[in-house]
Amino acid sequence: MTYREDVKLFKALADQNRLQIIELLHDGEKCACVLLEELNIAQPTLSHHMKILVDAELVNYRKEGKWMHYSLRDDAKDYILKSLEKFI
Amino acid sequence: MTYREDVKLFKALADQNRLQIIELLHDGEKCACVLLEELNIAQPTLSHHMKILVDAELVNYRKEGKWMHYSLRDDAKDYILKSLEKFI
DNA sequence: TTTACATATTGACAACTATCGATATGTTTT
DNA sequence: AAAACATATCGATAGTTGTCAATATGTAAA
Q1: Cα(B12)–Cα(B60) distance, rounded to whole angstroms?
Q2: pLDDT above 70 as % of chain B
Q3: CA-to-C1' distance for A42 and D29, Å?
Q4: SS3 of residue A61 by DSSP
Q5: At what angle do helices A16-25 and B4-13 cross, to 10 degrees?
Q6: Which stretches of chain B score pLDDT less than 50?
Q7: Tens of pLDDT along A25-58?
Q8: Within a 10 A sphere around the Cβ of A79, how many other Cβ atoms?
């Protein structure tokens, strides 16, 4: 039994900025530009974090013109819980 | 709001070997020597991982003579869940 | 009181990660 | 078509992490 996907998920959660992003997205979909305003990081850094969250399948994106809208997957908590339950 | 403790917890979960250790401890308390037999890592590496799990308060230890016995905290799942619920 | 054993610590190293300036890409506006 | 804007990618760098050999520490057995 290997846990590659679960490790990826917990790695995505193992960063202060990303936890804050998840909290911000909890209210609903947000534009990257809005996230950028709320966080104290440079634009390439935000882009980097969003990629990690999307790769972990925690966050969805929707492109609209020149804006990127990110949203937490609706069953995010269950998704993490299901991962947890594999070994705990 | 900062998430220092939560990041520490998720970092502890963000490693293949440590997830496997947690799975092994799910059966109940185990001696370090037993864990060492089940995992394909060197003894200092196990010691390192156990320290991270103990620091994250996911795992308790009990010293008995020259043996160290490690066990998962009984409310481990709730403990993680409570952390999750801070931002999700 | 040696010797053997279980675990922790140290030191070194390679791999990974977060960060940001510079730049590229793609879109809208003028 | 040019300028302005939003986001992604690249390249570099500092800091962190996983790993193990060597060694230290502490305990039990001979």
Answers
A1: 14
A2: 99
A3: 62
A4: strand
A5: 110
A6: none
A7: 999 999 999 999 999 999 999 999 999 999 999 9
A8: 17
Which among A28, A45, A27, B17 has a CA at the least distance from the CA of A36? A45
Q: Which of residues 1-30 of A touch strand D (CB under 7 A)?
A: none
User: Domain range for residue A67?
Assistant: 4-84
Strand C within 7 A of B53 CB: no
- A-B C-beta contacts closer than 8 Å: 73
Q: Average pLDDT, whole number, for chain A?
A: 97
Nearest to A87 among B14, B22, B84 (CB): B22
**Number of domains composing chain B:** 1
pLDDT of residue A76: 98
Q: What is the CATH number of the domain that holds B20?
A: 1.10.10.10
Q: Structure pTM? A: 0.96
Which region, left, alpha or beta, applies to residue A51 given φ > 0 means left and ψ of -120 to 50 means alpha? alpha
* Residues paired with residue A72 on neighbouring β-strands, in sequence order: A59
Nearest CA to B58 among A88, A6, A17, A20?
A88
**B51 to A72, B32, B56: CA distances (angstroms):** 33, 12, 8
